[in-house]
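Whether sequence alone determines local backbone shape is best considered at the level of individual chains. We regard such an encoding as a compact summary of how the chain folds. The sequence in question and its structure tokens are set out directly beneath this paragraph.
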Amino acid sequence: MKLRIKVINVVLLVLAAILSTTQPVFAKETKITRQDTTITNHLITNGDVTRTFTKNMQVNNATSIEVTNVQELQQALQNASDQDIITLAKNFTVDADFSISKPGDKQVTVEGNGVAIGEYTMTISGQGSKPLILQNLHFTAASQKQAIRILTNIPITLRQMEFIGRTHLQDGGAVLLGVSDAQVTVEQCSFMENSQSMPGYSGAAISATSFRGTLTIVNSLFRNNKNLAVGNASFGGEGGAVCINQALAGAAIQIRDNYFVGNEAVKNVSGNKAKLADGGALAVFNIVNTASLTVEGNTFAHNVAGDDGGAILIQTNDNMSENIMLKNNTFYRNVAQGASNDSYSGGAVQIYANGGLLQGRNALVVFEHNTFAYNQAKRAAGAIGGSGYATNTSGGRYRNNLFVGNVASDPTFANIRQKATTLEDLGGNVGIDNGVAANFQEHTILGNYPTTLTTNHSSKTAGASLSSEIIPTLPIKPEGQADEVTPMIQQVEVDQRNHQRIGIADAGSIEQSWVKYDANGGNYQLQALETSIGDAYYEPDALQDNRIHTYYYISCINQGKTILDGVHDLQIVRDGYQFVGWSKQANDTLGDLVYTPGNRISCLEENITLYAVWQEDQLYDVLYDGNGHTAGEVPVDASGPYAKQNSIHVLAHGDLRKDGYEFVHWNTQKDGSGSSYKANDTLVMDGATTLYAQWKKVDLVEKVDDTIVVDAIDVPVHQQTEQIEQIEKQPPETADSQRVYGWVVLLLVTSTGFITYVKHKKQQ
């Protein structure tokens, strides 16, 4: 183990001591008011963005102080009373690194008001057992600058903070816990694009060394934080986002409800120290059995370790049995690149038992209700690797975990490989192997469609309000191999999303509840799913007729659902039958009013199957009525009869005639007061239907004499010819009321000359 002595910035400590003896001098802008109230949903506006704080704080006779620069902040802290709130003004200025200190046993809150600290470093010290709370501050990009250095063991809470783009040459690219007994809570904070790049150091976002204090990280986002260099001895490069180097006696570490995505521990590392590039997101190094580690409710996705533990490295330095717990976590597509070619690499998690050559320690980690999906290791242990030095061994105790789609070069260790120690399968697990390939197919667990992380009925978020994200999880297939696996040991628990687990538990990090709609002889004419996102699932029945016969409406226990309409929502059909409703009994003929479409029900611990209720079709004809016609035949619909709700196309009137009238359209009422239809219009059947012809009277045209008289035409005597000419003028009506479609002029030219006009009728 490499020992390092951390040098404390003496200058900053001396400056803090001097300031603590200085009398307060407030600028003109400083405002001091007394208040006795309860602060709830405190809204802070920064530019165009409004931030909401959901913590409720009881404030009794507290002082609210507004400060405009670092000196005023330091003075306000020195003179603060218990429960005081110090607010940074919108125009608060910082032009250099600075320190703050809380004196005495007083709780003080520094409300950052959305102020950006810029490229500077804040060093925190103080006294007393009551906390110093810092909230709503932004630390923006800076080269070789940590954002916060905590050099005190007073309780410190960092809430609604953003740390973006900080780079540092040593531990803690963003936040350093600089004393071994620090008590720090990180709540609703965002750490993005931070890095550290000096060999021998770790933790690009948060780092602590020789730690015996308390560290609680909750509802925070760690995205794209990176260690860029490995060590030059036995440590350095671990924990792409968070690293605890030596968790000593008394250390209590809780990592709960966070989202770790895209973090890296020296990706693509090479050289003889490549074995140090472990724990792509989190590393806890040399933890002892009088310390505790709880990792619960988190999602680790797309993290990469250059060597082992694509998401997490847990290195023990003692016999361990009960004090390390991983519960209700999702591990998705993490990668251990295996630069040192270890056979126990752990695509998601590596446990490594440290100890003497012949010490023979055994370290066990409890894994309960975790999902490991599509993680990858170079050689073996695509999900979890249990390794150790020499005679020291490590492994897990497993209950209700799900392993699916994990990849390693040895398929018999695609999910787990443990060194020597017996794997403890406590029941309810799906996919355990450890040398014997798991006997299942991926689609029986996740379904036939591409599956990825989704919000999946969760409202739990990670990160400061401006950059917060829903913590995603992975849906499972209803009635698949991971659904309802084993009875619960405890009566009531919660899953990763904080939804209840009751009755028979699902394997993995989520507990789903569903309503199954069984078409009961019919089928659903729905478009094929493109991906499974956890709200509905259906697939064609390849063994029957390749149609959809079941539809799962997915929810959570005790979460309300609306009963779906079979026709409008699910497009249910059955030849010769009409959909009536739903029932829990497959042979019902009336339907259960409790499950009337539109009603709300609560999904209980037992999943519900509802069967479609059908009534055999009554068939109806469509009749056509000439409604006083005088000629022609009434149309006959030879395709009928039809069931209710069937759609038909209305026929044309054909040769149907009525003297002195012309046909207009059909109508469902004889007097034309019903619904009108033209030829080829769509009519939806609602019972027996008669369509009546509707007629419009035609006005007669007045008779006129259309005789044309021509007396004579002069032509030369010697010329004789015959010519037929078509006249284009619109012809008049003739005396016998027969329409003339043209006039033929027969021109016979003689010495005297005359013209005869002859009517030419259209050929029938």
